[in-house]
From TrEMBL:
<dbReference type="GO" id="GO:0005886">
    <property type="term" value="C:plasma membrane"/>
</dbReference>
<keyword id="KW-0732">Signal</keyword>
<dbReference type="InterPro" id="IPR042414">
    <property type="entry name" value="CD8B"/>
</dbReference>
<dbReference type="GO" id="GO:0042288">
    <property type="term" value="F:MHC class I protein binding"/>
</dbReference>
<feature type="region of interest" description="Disordered">
    <location>
        <begin position="141"/>
        <end position="176"/>
    </location>
</feature>
<dbReference type="InterPro" id="IPR036179">
    <property type="entry name" value="Ig-like_dom_sf"/>
</dbReference>
<feature type="domain" description="Ig-like">
    <location>
        <begin position="20"/>
        <end position="118"/>
    </location>
</feature>
<dbReference type="GO" id="GO:0015026">
    <property type="term" value="F:coreceptor activity"/>
</dbReference>
<dbReference type="GO" id="GO:0002250">
    <property type="term" value="P:adaptive immune response"/>
</dbReference>
<keyword id="KW-0325">Glycoprotein</keyword>
<dbReference type="InterPro" id="IPR013106">
    <property type="entry name" value="Ig_V-set"/>
</dbReference>
<dbReference type="GO" id="GO:0050776">
    <property type="term" value="P:regulation of immune response"/>
</dbReference>
<dbReference type="GO" id="GO:0009986">
    <property type="term" value="C:cell surface"/>
</dbReference>
<feature type="signal peptide">
    <location>
        <begin position="1"/>
        <end position="21"/>
    </location>
</feature>
<keyword id="KW-1133">Transmembrane helix</keyword>
<dbReference type="InterPro" id="IPR003599">
    <property type="entry name" value="Ig_sub"/>
</dbReference>
<keyword id="KW-1015">Disulfide bond</keyword>
Length: 202
């Protein structure tokens, strides 16, 4: 129930702050074990020196779920990692408005939803998220079976008959998730992000 209320509040705040957005690409990605993954986060209408943080959510949002702080890009052109993060495996490239999280030699344990985030006043602003799935073997789509039908005799009419064919075109539908805005005090921030050292955000 709390998670549902949190999402509702975040969506409402996103509507009020639509001018600022964090757009992540791709929206979802499935790769094989030991591949290299590049996740992008772009900021619009924000100062160029804005620091972008990267977080991971391993499971669906619930009362017991929490974000893992992974890393952020420091102005001295280095990646600042979170605790228990493999520094050889994870790096952040570039600075705002474009940030890229690079993951090398990914494993199934790296699967989850990856979020970029910036600290606004007084809101934490989350990106749209990227769902990463790491598998040992990529699924294969079944080949369509072709049915052969017996040939039919065509009776020719004395006059040529033309038929108009109707073509239907269905346009694709793109669904995007809104940017999430979450107002938090420091105590509630620590409750939501137990694995994050809050001093990194000051």
């Amino acid at each position: 129930m709390r998670a549902r209320l949190w999402l509702l509040l975040a969506a409402q705040l996103a509507a009020l702050h639509g001018s600022l957005a964090l757009v992540q690409t791709p929206a979802s990605l499935m790769v094989q074990t030991n591949q290299t993954v590049m996740l992008s986060c772009k900021i619009n209408t924000s100062p160029s020196n804005t620091r972008i943080y990267w977080l991971r959510l391993r499971q669906a949002l619930s009362a017991s779920s929490h974000y893992e702080f992974l890393a952020y890009w420091e102005s001295t052109r280095k990646t600042v990692h979170g605790k228990e993060v493999d520094k050889e495996k994870l790096t952040v490239l570039g600075n705002s408005p474009q940030n890229v999280l690079k993951l090398q030699s990914v494993k199934p344990a790296d699967s989850g939803v990856y979020f970029c985030m910036i600290i606004g006043m007084p809101n934490l602003i989350f990106g749209t998220g990227t769902q990463l799935s790491v598998v040992d073997v990529l699924p294969t789509s079944p080949q369509p079976t072709q049915k052969t039908s017996p040939k039919k005799k065509v009776c020719r009419s004395p006059k040529p008959v033309t038929r108009e064919r109707e073509f239907s075109h269905s346009s694709g539908f793109s669904e995007t998730q809104p940017t999430l805005f979450l107002p938090l005090s420091l105590p509630s921030f620590r409750k939501l992000f137990p694995s994050v050292d809050s001093s990194l955000f000051l």
